[in-house]
Amino acid sequence: MPQILSQPESRTAEIKPLCVDLDGTLVKSDTLIDSLLVLTRTHPFILLRLPGQILRGKAAFKAIVTDHVALDVAHLPYNRKLLQFLQKEHSQGREIYLTTGADARLAQRVADHLGVFREVLASDGTHNLTGTRKLASLRDRFGAGAFVYIGNDTPDLPVMAGAAESMVANPSRRLRMKLRAQGITPSQAFEERREPLRSLIKALRPHQWAKNLLILLPPLLAHNHSVRLLSAALLAFFCFCCVASGTYMFNDLLDIETDRRNPKKRFRPFASGDLSPAAGLAAIVLLLTLGFAAAQFLPAAFSFWLLLYLGSTLLYSFYLKRIALIDVIVLSALYTLRLLAGGAAANTPISHWLAGFAIFLFLSLAIVKRFAELENLRLTGMQLKNDRGYLMSDIEQIRAFGTASAFAAVVVFANYISGPDVTALYHHSPRLWLIVPCMVLWLCRVWLLASRGELNEDPVAFALTDGASLAMGGAVLAIVLLAM
Prior knowledge:
- 58% of the residues lie in helices and 6% in strands.
- It is mainly α.
- It folds into two domains: 18-190, Rossmann fold; 196-483, Tetracycline Repressor, domain 2 (Orthogonal Bundle).
- Strands 3-2-1-4-5-6 form a six-stranded parallel β-sheet.
- Helix 5 (104-114) links the parallel strand 2 (96-103) and strand 3 (119-123).
């Protein structure tokens, strides 16, 4: 049986005990789903054995998951409005009980962390404390209609109907409808969740689609401006945006607990509990289906590169991103892969010089992202969570790798614009040399900001919002037009 937490016994007899649900109510997410996502990332092979355990019952299944995953209760996405209300009631001497279908060990850890609950009533590995079973348990504990209950979804409906007073926290649409049908009016509502469509759009990371513009470069750099080829390139861009967004969402689901510990990433839709994993999985399936269905209208070679991109990003999400140096090499390769895919879609092979330039440039950008993460942690004095394979002592060596790669990209670009292919395409090709100082200035500026701890995001996303970067990009475009 869960232990009883210490609490003063002073409370007026008229105040009924307050019983609070956990999943979707006190916490905006579902702790069982969160635990399964953590298990998928940390012990995927154990996850494969779990379906057979469901036959033992839902309570036993929850207990088995809790055996393998110790969810970080300190960083769960709590409903702050509800939590403030509970803290106020607790300070006034009211008895508050955590009554949940979650496993008792997990629920007890939540109660110990928050310190407002007198007792925990939860699933014990044999009995799943939800619905009518939860109602019976509360009646046995307090008597019929002698408690107040706070819930969020239809499984809470029997308990709310049997309570003296009911409240809701982020109630589902189904619960609202059924409460209305039964004439139950909650006395209070604790709403703290962003609009689902807005959260879904944020989870897609549309700002990252700028990386997929690389797909358009092969036909543009080859000066092949036929409508057919440009249409093919745009369709390829659409396919990559769909698949990339699907992989971003999948990565966010796997990193849900890690993101909650990060001061910025904790506001991501899945980490914050604003978007459910079920909605995310449905969106992932839809996005991947759209991407690969549209790819059927392009050459088969493009589908190969798209499939390779998907496989590489999944492998990166599961494993490779935790291996130092391998992670940044994979990231840079994914950029180059976009160029190859664009060339395949438009039947326009890319120059080996362009491929080499892309590898060195994007390797530098991938490294600067890792460098900035370490430097920002060092400057703020935060503890390094070593889930990326890097140590704080690696900073100077990482800086050396990244800056060397940046200048290697400049050298390769200088050789590229001096080649016969480029001189044949541009009437004033020597003017392209004006791009070199723009590149040097931008790359040095990015590394300088990172060294100062002022680069707080992906360098590509930074470039899209930084005025100086946009100005240099405009200058490069103007130089290209003058060279033509």
